[in-house]
TrEMBL record:
One of its GO terms (molecular function) is aconitate hydratase activity. Keywords: Iron, Iron-sulfur, Lyase, Metal-binding. It is an enzyme of class 4 (lyase). GO terms for biological process: propionate catabolic process, 2-methylcitrate cycle; tricarboxylic acid cycle. Residues 181-407 form the Aconitase B swivel domain. InterPro entries: Acnase/IPM_dHydase_lsu_aba_1/3 (IPR015931), Acoase/IPM_deHydtase_lsu_aba (IPR001030), Aconitase/3IPM_dehydase_swvl (IPR015928), Aconitase/IPM_isomerase (IPR050926), Aconitase_4Fe-4S_dom (IPR036008), Aconitase_B_HEAT-like_dom (IPR015933), Aconitase_B_HEAT-like_dom_sf (IPR036288), Aconitase_B_swivel (IPR015929). NCBIfam families: PRK09238.1 (NF006690). Pfam families: Aconitase, Aconitase_2_N, Aconitase_B_N. Residues 435-896 form the Aconitase/3-isopropylmalate dehydratase large subunit alpha/beta/alpha domain. This is Aconitate hydratase.
Amino acid sequence: MSIYKDYLNQIENRKKLGLHPQPIDSADLLSEIVSQIKDIDHAYRTESLDFFIYNVLPGTTSAAGVKAKFLKEIILGKSLVKEITASFAFEQLSHMKGGPSIEVLLDIALGNDAAIASQAGTVLKTQVFLYEADMNRLENAFKEGNTTAINIIESYAKAEFFTKLPEIDEEIEIVTFVAGIGDISTDLLSPGGDAHSRSDRELHGQCLFEHNKAQQNQLIALQKQHPSKRVMLIADKGTMGVGSSRMSGVNNVALWTGIKASPYVPYINIAPIIAGTNGISPIFLTTVGVTGGIGIDLKNWIKQKDEAGNIVRDENEDVVLKEAYSVATGTVLTVNTKEKKLYSGDTVLTDISEALTPQKVEFIRAGGSYAIVFGKKLQAFAAKALDIDLVSVYANSKEISIDGQGLTAVEKLFNKNAVGIAPGKTLHAGSYVRVQVNIIGSQDTTGLMTSQELEMMAATVISPIVDGAYQSGCHTASVWDDKSKANIPRLMKFMNDFGLITARDPKHIYKPMTDVIHKVLNDLTVDDWAIIIGGDSHTRMSKGVAFGADSGTVALALATGEASMPIPESVKVTFKGKMENYMDFRDVVHATQSQMLKNFGGDNVFQGRIIEVHLGTLTADEAFTFTDWTAEMKAKASICISEDGTLIESLEIAKGRIQIMIEKGMDNQKQVLQGLIDIANRRIAEIKSGEKPALTPDANAKYAAEVVIDLDLVEEPMIADPDVNNDDVSKRYTHDTIRPLSFYGGTKKVDLGFIGSCMVHKGDMKILAQMLKNVEAQQGKVEFKAPLVVAPPTYNIVDELKAEGDWDVLVKYAGFEFDDNAPKDAARTGYKNILYLERPGCNLCMGNQEKAAAGDTVMATSTRLFQGRVVKDSEEKKGESLLSSTPVVVLSTILGRIPTMEEYKTAVRGINLTKFAPSLKQLVK
């Protein structure tokens, strides 16, 4: 059977699912289609023409190469297709976004036929996705006096590819659709369980609202009722897009409510409009900008104050809110992009300037942020080639420089890594900056989309200015099923060829690794002055500053080695008092969030800002527990301020783990991993010599807020509770309800425990082993009254535990131990009351492969308490994912309930918990 016949069979199967033909990315399939188009009597010629014109993915896909080549034949007259004129062929090329299409256009533009060269030049003037090889061809032709090349470069110098675009509409009529009350997790928009389908955009689109067909139909009905208006998706009384950095979530919203990007590119929509009472989660907002969308902070619920100006609270001590204006589903509003106001009729509801900054307006106009990034690079190249000054076309980047004001840690980092600012100029928070990126991470459930984005922006190799990049396999670690077998090896080969260090070797030289991406990046970050971009919201390193990002921003960083963003404001967190010896550092992390909210009247001063946490004495492994949780604090990122000696210790640990990766055969031809060890050695030498101590802020730096955490007040283990039965639905499933252990009175039943994900480190595994030995010594044996699932974060940690004897302890009590030679090929559907030693990776935290039983109450070290993530609701009971320290999880599974304070103290007696004492040094310059 031919490839085309196979494709027809696939189409029939997709019809049964209500889907259209899958977009074509295969050269073999499109080559057969081209042959059928050339045969004017072929039975499938008409369908083949439609597939060729309307159903081929652009960029650097192998199919795009075949399409560009055939269009070139048509333009040059070597192939005659009456349905595709030369003019139409040029139009097709103009929508193919670089790679083979640019190569073809340059071939024609720099050829000898002046008439068609001019037409190709006209199309090239609209294109921005050119890379060094393309620009070199143009520049060489320009130097040789080629007229078309001169015209193109002169056009690029004026940035006509941008200036000739139509202005954005002054008024955009919208109709509201409330997708949920309270915080909306990206799981609602793109569920983790559907991660396998993200690269198939139409198929993945079916999972919007977690497959809630009734809600989807309501959206469709609203669109039919208001055909001329744009739908604005809303999180009322909450924040939109919390949880994960999902391009797939934005893609789904755009697919349902956005604008078609091109008539010739299927199922790629752009420009969604989304909103939240408390705005948009920082990472998700960046993703909206990638698509040229609009993210609005509604501020439609206002905190009430009494006559004395104090915040009014109800009997539960919750802040009382009053609705300033309604955004109920079906409300017609107007976005005025000139005045930057949200209107209801003639009434101004709120200022939306932050949604329509000059830079964001450019993203909207250009159809996304990529076009602006590449456009600026292209204009700079042309100005240099012409030896002229760069003409100011784009909005000037906001530059804030305050005389006499010191720098926070993040301000220092951005100034050090900034690209394109005047020499000697110092920038403060609020400035918009292009920065060089040092370390980049891609994970496996968004990586397929990152690879697609790289193909669509015509990138073929990682930027040479990137120190290192890693492709993980952690989100699909639990179950090696047919979906994983189909997707992951393909992803690993693409990323390996692109220049990343990959968890799986396409040539099978080293064993597959399923290490949690954040933990690997934490080891690969060997410079506290580094900037890290990763395709996951928990890209929060304890060295340097790391930003979780959507798959597209990761692709852009891989291709260019740069990222653009405002310098965020910082909140300084310091500590006083003494930590009780029976407490774990995870309790300090939860107490930080709880005390911050209490001290600021319920206002989350962390949201959208950098948390500059002065931990000082904790090594990178332990400090990561805090920085990782800052994603749940809704911070944009975090920076850990360390003492010199502690940083050196962390770098030595990282060097050792990178060396293990090298010994396993994971380094590539460019010896990226060895290069990271060299960077670490240089950094250690700088610190020891005093040439460049560990990163610290200036003593006179200015902060948006300062928070002092009193350790004396942390007297009990702290639990983040989803509060699933709160009468106010907006207060459910947030990370803001932090409760002491005694709240539960030792009676709340626990159905399953989970120790794993990025929130645990080697010390947590040792605590688990110590607790099991303690319980056996106290009770004669260890019996679990609830299942305990344990997933170590990395293989390095497993190896270290084996060397130190702790792994043998865990195996002794385990009823299941993972086997890499025979990984599970199906998700577990039930659990026994035993200890499960699972493969390193995300496991239950991700929720895309295995989950707890519906309706379970789970006690976990994880970060995820969102509805349906770790555990779904049953018909009888809501599923709950409570988050706590490792000892609380262990004891809860042994008892089958949350322990009392006395039971907890007895169980941890003599155990070496993760200790923390505030630094005695002033960690400022």
